[in-house]
Structure formats: structure tokens, C-alpha cells
Amino acid sequence: MNTRATPAVGYRIGSLLADFQPDFEFSAPLPLPVEEFEERLRRIRRQAVEAGHDAIIVHTGSVGWFHTSNAYLRYICDWMREGVLIVPTDSDKPLTLLSFFTQSVLLPPGGEPLLVDEIWQIGPIGREYADRPGDSVIKTAEKCAEILAYLGLRHAQIGQIGDRTSLTFWAALNALMPKCKFVADNPILDRLQKVRSPGEVAMFRAAAQLASIGTQAAYHVAKPGVTDHEIFAAFTMAQMAFGGETGDGYQIGINEFGTHCGKPYGHVVRPGDLINLYISNVTWRGYTAQTARMIAVGEITAHQEDVLAACTEGVKRAEKLIKPGALMRDINNAAFEPMIARGMLTSPEARTMPYNWAPEEDGSARLIPRQYVKDIDWEAQGRKLMHVYPATYGPHNPNLGHSIGMAGGQNSFNISSHNYDRLEEGMIFVLHAQWLEPLAAGCNIGDCYVVTADGFENLSRHTPLETHRIDTGA
To answer: Which residues belong to any copy of the Peptidase M24 domain (predicted)?
Structure first.
């Protein structure tokens, strides 16, 4: 088997970070009080009544690497593992949690489920795993049906909340309770998370501060000769040392073109490189923040500078409009004005805009161009880059930004040309202006905001939006 030494000989990340300290004080909020979860439960039950549900069943699966498939259980009862939560609409009936039906070995589990009366351990089983017959999903459905029957809900209307990992469970439960009417109703929980409470804002603020700490650490170590692995590690070590929950919720990309958004693979930083830190999920107590920053290593091309300037100016134009009552469409369109002025785009309209992952104009699949692209660090590992990514020019997405929420949660709104909703106090979102031209230029830069009574707070203000510059002495 062929092996080779890594570009960074030895372990030097500790020395690179030896004198690092963030330039601001991190504020670490305590967990949300039980009273906030009680208020959520009250509102959930009220919406269930309005929908005609006799109970709600919330399913959260597992997607590997000890991550849950959605944030619904953590939002309702602060449970970090997989599970099925049975919520009777009647307020005098307790909540029941079915869990421990995957092989995730988080023991003891992180935290204690709030407001839950009973927790049932289903157990991962099967011939190969436990030398026992059966299927954990079916066993979970059987126990759920048993509890619903005990609650007198054999002929009930049941609201279902889950995701794609829930499908087998829903099918089994429907077969076990043929006289029940099951209604998919994720909006019950999604609507509640559009506007955030002051306690939740504090959690998002902490997550954004973690992102800023990690970014400052990345700036501290980034220089020619350092690898993308080391920059990624510096970011990770810094934010997790202050309480970040995960180290894999973000991307780093480095190359001479600025066309990047990925994971580290062994690239060695060189003069002329552009580095993107796309912080898409740094988490504090389940709440996330998003930011995006660019680093220029020495001199870059005039066109690349123009793209960086357009994106930076776009975010700043959009930011000026943030306040309660502002039209989301107007905020989106303002950010694309610098690109239109430079001839990069002709319109901010999402329907007509080119973007990196777009299909062909008629909706058919787009062929990714096959072309050899030189990458000496990848080739040193015995591979070659034989396609051009992305397949076409434009922003990553045909919009400016979106809401942010809990880890694994869904966006409740996008900041886009076709969104005519108005901002409300307590909304939290990221605005990230993006542009990529294959093998030419690229930028992804943005901040995280909360709408306040008279404007906004920039939660990621501890690192400037402008491109960070590394002087190579050339």
C-alpha cells in the first residue's frame, strides 16, 4: 500500500494556537427555563385543538454520526437523541417518550427530557446486532399503538410530525391503527419557530459568538504552508473549547480561483489562494448560527477583487433595510444591485437568475463539464480532478439568505425576490451574498441578524464582513 507524509509534518496545531485569544468576551447563556418549554407545549396543544387532532406524534430519527434527523424533540422537550413523543391534546394527560431504538451509543443521553412523564426504552434489536428476532421500527410502532389505545385513542385523529426517516414508522403505525385518521402536520411546530423569544435570541447570539471565535482562530493560523486541515482544526478547537456542540457543521474551501465550498482534503495554502469559511452550523445548546467569511492570501486578480467587493457591498446594502415591517423581497433585491451594476446579473428575480446548482433552463439535468483541473495537493494523493465544479456561474443559490433555527431544523423562510412577507421583531436569519465563476472568481460572505424593535442586531459583528487579508511579503 502506497503512503505519503502529509504536507504538515508533525503535529503543530497546538503551537499555531498557543497565543490565540478572541478579542471579545464570550457570553454563555444557561439552558432555557422549564417555563419556556411549558409555554411551547401550551401553544402546540392549542394548535392541535384548532386542527382537530386528539394527539400529536413527533418522530425524530437518526442520520448517523450521532446526529438526529430533525430538531423537533429538542424544541419540545430538550431531548437530544432519537425518539417518538406522544402528545395528547388534553392538557391533563402526560407526555410519553419512546426512545433508544437506534445503535447510537450516547450513554447517558445528553440531558433530561422536560415535561415527559414516562420514557420507554425500545432497544435496537435484530439478528445480526442482538441475535434476537424483530425490527426496532416495528417495535416502536407497536408500543406507540399500545399507548394510544391506553389513552382511548383507537378511533382518533392524530397529527404526525417528522421527516423522511419517519416513513417506515408511520406506515407501521397506520397499519396497526387502521381506525385512526393520521394527518401530516409539521407546520404546527414550524410556525412556532418563525419568531424567537428573548431567551432563544440569547442562544443564537452565543452560537454566533462561537462562530466569531472560530473565525478569529482561523485567521490566527492561516498563512502559506498551513493546510486546510489545520485551519479547520483551529476553528473547531477554538469554538468547541468555549462550548460548541459539534465540529462538523461548516465548510472550508481553498483554491486559486475562489470557486470553493467544501471540506478539507489536504490543500496547502499558497500565495494567491482564496479561502472561504462557510459557517453553516455552529451550535450552542441546539441553536445554530451562520456566517461566511473570505480570506485572501497575498495578491489576487482584479476580477476576484471586484467579485469580493460586489458581494460585500451587497450584504451592507441589504443590512440597511432590516427593521420590523421591511419587505423581505426588498432586502433580497438590494443585495443584488452591485452585481447588476457590474453586469454580473441582469435581474434579482429568483426565477430568472443563474445559480451554481441550477438545472438547464427547461428544467432538465445539466451535464457537469468534464475537464482536467490541476490540483497538486489532490494529485499528490493519487487522484485527479477531472470535472469543473460548479457547472455554471452565478450565486450558490438564487436568493440572499434564509432563517436559521435549531440544528437539523428546516428553514421557515427565505430572503428571496418572491417572498413578500415582512420582517417581525424576533426573526433571525443569515444574509450571505455569493458568487462563483468556475476557474475564475468566487465569494461567499455574510452575517447573522436578529430583528429588534427598532432595527437589527448583527450577531456576527465580532469579525468584520470585509475580506481578511494575509500579507505574504510578495
So the answer is: 203-453
